[in-house]
C-alpha cells in the first residue's frame, strides 16, 4: 500500500483508489482519487478529529449542510459522499475533482488572458448571487477556494465558514464570531474591525480583492497584521465619513476615522487595470458593496460564454448581485 493510501481507512480505500496527495493543512488532508466502481475522478478530504470541540463540529456541519443545499449550482463544488471514520473522530468528504485553483494559476504568472479573467469573475458572481439568494454569506472567498479546470470553469468551495445571516444576528454577542473569519487579505474592513453588523457586502469585498489580484498578479492588500491591513486599505480608498456610522460599517467607523487618511487614488490608476469598466468593478466591489434598491431593476445578465462576457457586461452583473446586499 502506498504512503497516501496508508493514511486512508480500509473502507474508504476499498471504494476509492488514492492517487496522490493534493494538500494538507491544520484541519485535514486532501487526495486525488478514482472511484473504483465508475472510474470517476474525485477528491477525498479527510477532516481530522472533526468534532473535537464545538467550533470545529459547527464548521464541519455547516460545510456539509450548505454544500448539500447549494451543490446543484454549476459553479459550486458538488459534495458526492460523506463517510464516517471508524474511529468516530475523523470524517471523509468526497467531492467532484477539479484540476487546480485560482491561487495556483495566478502564482504561475501570465496564464490568464483578459477573456479568462472576465469568465472567471462572471462565474464567481453567479455563485455568490446564488448563495446570497438563500440569505447565506460565504465569508471565506479567496483564490485558493476558487477551483478551476482546463476550460476555466469555476467551482466555489470550502463552505466551512459560511453562515446564515439570520444565525449571525442571533450570535452577535459572541466575541469570537468575526475573529474566526477568512484569510486576512480578503477580509472586509467591518470584519477586520470586529463589527457585529456586517452584511452580504463582505463577500463582494472579497470578490473585488480577488479581481484585483487577477489583474495585478499579486494580492491587492497584502497586510502583515490586522492594523497593517486597515492601513493598506486606507492608502487606496478614502475612509468612511462620520455619517457612515449609520451605514453598514456601524461602530467600527470610529476606529477607521482615527487611522491615517489618504485621498484614495493610489492603486486605481494602475496600468494593469485594462479599462474603465475594470476599475469600476474593483472599486465598486470594495467601496460600495451595498447599492440602492433601484438597481434591482437592472436584471440583464451577460450570456454564459467566455466568448461573449465583457467587463461592461460584468459591471451590469455586479450591480445585479449587489442590489440585494
Summary keywords:
single chain; 325 residues; alpha+beta; five-stranded antiparallel beta sheet; three-stranded antiparallel beta sheet; 12 helices; globular; mitogen-activated protein kinase; ATP binding; transferase; serine/threonine-protein kinase
Describe how the helices and strands are arranged:
Layout: H1 3-6, H2 10-15, E1 16-24, E2 28-35, E3 41-47, H3 54-70, E4 79-84, E5 91-96, E6 100-101, H4 102-107, H5 114-133, E7 136-137, E8 146-148, E9 154-156, E10 163-164, H6 165-170, H7 189-192, H8 201-216, H9 226-236, H10 253-257, H11 276-287, H12 311-322
Antiparallel strand pairs: 1-2, 2-3, 3-5, 4-5, 6-8, 7-10, 8-9
Helix pairs in contact: 5-8, 5-12, 8-11, 11-12
What would your notes on this structure say?
Belongs to the protein kinase superfamily. CMGC Ser/Thr protein kinase family. MAP kinase subfamily. Pfam families: Pkinase (PF00069). The strands form 3 sheets. A 5-stranded antiparallel sheet has the order 1-2-3-5-4. 37% of the residues lie in helices and 15% in strands. The protein has 12 helices and 10 strands. A hairpin with a 3-residue loop joins strand 1 and strand 2 (28-35). With 325 residues, the protein is an alpha+beta fold.
Amino acid at each position: 500500500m502506498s504512503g497516501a493510501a496508508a493514511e486512508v481507512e480500509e473502507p474508504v480505500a476499498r471504494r476509492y483508489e488514492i492517487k496522490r496527495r493534493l494538500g494538507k493543512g491544520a484541519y485535514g488532508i486532501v487526495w486525488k482519487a478514482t472511484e473504483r466502481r465508475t472510474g470517476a475522478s474525485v477528491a477525498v478530504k479527510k477532516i481530522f478529529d472533526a468534532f473535537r470541540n464545538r467550533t470545529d463540529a459547527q464548521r464541519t456541519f455547516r460545510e456539509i449542510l450548505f454544500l448539500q443545499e447549494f451543490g446543484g449550482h454549476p459553479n459550486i463544488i458538488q459534495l458526492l459522499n460523506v463517510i464516517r471514520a471508524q474511529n468516530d473522530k475523523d470524517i471523509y468528504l468526497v467531492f467532484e475533482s477539479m484540476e487546480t485553483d485560482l491561487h495556483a494559476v495566478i502564482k504561475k504568472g501570465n496564464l490568464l488572458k483578459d477573456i479568462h479573467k472576465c469568465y472567471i469573475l462572471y462565474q464567481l458572481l453567479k455563485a455568490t448571487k446564488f448563495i446570497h439568494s438563500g440569505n447565506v454569506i460565504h465569508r471565506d472567498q479567496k483564490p485558493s477556494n476558487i477551483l478551476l479546470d482546463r476550460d476555466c470553469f469555476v467551482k466555489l468551495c470550502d463552505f466551512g465558514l459560511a453562515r446564515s445571516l439570520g444565525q449571525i444576528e442571533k450570535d452577535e454577542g459572541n466575541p469570537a464570531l468575526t475573529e474566526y473569519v477568512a484569510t486576512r487579505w480578503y477580509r472586509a474592513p467591518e470584519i477586520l474591525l470586529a463589527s457585529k453588523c456586517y452584511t452580504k457586502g463582505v463577500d463582494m469585498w472579497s470578490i473585488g480583492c480577488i479581481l484585483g489580484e487577477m489583474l495585478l498578479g499579486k494580492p491587492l492588500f497584502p497586510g502583515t497584521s490586522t492594523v497593517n491591513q486597515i492601513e493598506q486599505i486606507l492608502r487606496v480608498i478614502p475612509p468612511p465619513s462620520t455619517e457612515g456610522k449609520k451605514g453598514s460599517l456601524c461602530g467600527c467607523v470610529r476606529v477607521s476615522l482615527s487611522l491615517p487618511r489618504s485621498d484614495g487614488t493610489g492603486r486605481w490608476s494602475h496600468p494593469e487595470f485594462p479599462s474603465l469598466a475594470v476599475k469600476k468593478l474593483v472599486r465598486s466591489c470594495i467601496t460600495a458593496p451595498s447599492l440602492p434598491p433601484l438597481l434591482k431593476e437592472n436584471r440583464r445578465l451577460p450570456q454564459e460564454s467566455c466568448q461573449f462576457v465583457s467587463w461592461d457586461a460584468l459591471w451590469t452583473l455586479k450591480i445585479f448581485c449587489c442590489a440585494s446586499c
